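COURSE: Structural Biology Practicum
ASSIGNMENT: Worksheet 4, Part C
STUDENT ID: 0417
INSTRUCTIONS: Below are two proteins. For each, the amino acid sequence is given first, followed by its structure token string. Answer the questions at the end about the second protein only.

PROTEIN I
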Amino acid sequence: VQLVESGGGLVQPGGSLRLSCAASGGFLSYYVITWFRQAPGKQREGVSCISTSDGSTYYADSVKGRFTISRDGAKNTVYLQMNILKPEDTAVYYCAIDLDRAFCSSGMGRAGSMDYWGKGTQVTVSS
């Protein structure tokens, strides 16, 4: 299983970016894909997740209403559309797969429970 993130970059406050997470490898059952982020000196935190079973989603309060997660099953790719970006959104963004969960409408799993991780993509929000 391999996860590859892309789409990060430098953007001004109020701007937008779309991150992609391309997954390769065979999966025998439904699973949840979660976006995490980690800012310098801070713990990795969950941003949003989506279920490959029913498409249910969940967002952290800090990004609700600004970020949208979606999935293209045919391409095995998950997207994170980030709008109205703020300097506090600056972080390395990672996508991860949780094989033990099929739904995420009730919340995101802990970073420690993820089974596979991508290498991350840097997002910097600055004027």
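PROTEIN II
(use this one for the questions)
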Amino acid sequence: VQLQASGGGLVQAGGSLRLSCAASGIIFSPNVMGWYRQAPGKQRELVARITSGGSTNYADSVKGRFTISRDNAKNTVYLQMNSLNPEDTAVYYCNFEYYSAYVVWGQGTLVTVSS
């Protein structure tokens, strides 16, 4: 599996961005796709995950502001980010997991939120 992420950029506080991550290659199923982020000087943390069946979970810090979704026909996962604040500034990585034994990371896309 290869992952190609896109959609990062610079946005003002209160703004919105939508990240996309397309998976290609042999897609094992069932699987989980997700978004993680890593801010400067901090550890990588989970933002949101979604199973191939549509179950989701979110970090507390983004609940109510971010929405993860996926299009299984396109093997693509999306992260709609609203009400962004400077604390959301980070490199965002998409992730593909198959029973936790097969894990693939995308290349990361930078999200910068200015105050």
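ANSWER KEY EXCERPT:
Q1: The two ends are 37 Å apart (CA to CA).
Q2: The first strand starts at residue 2 and ends at 6.
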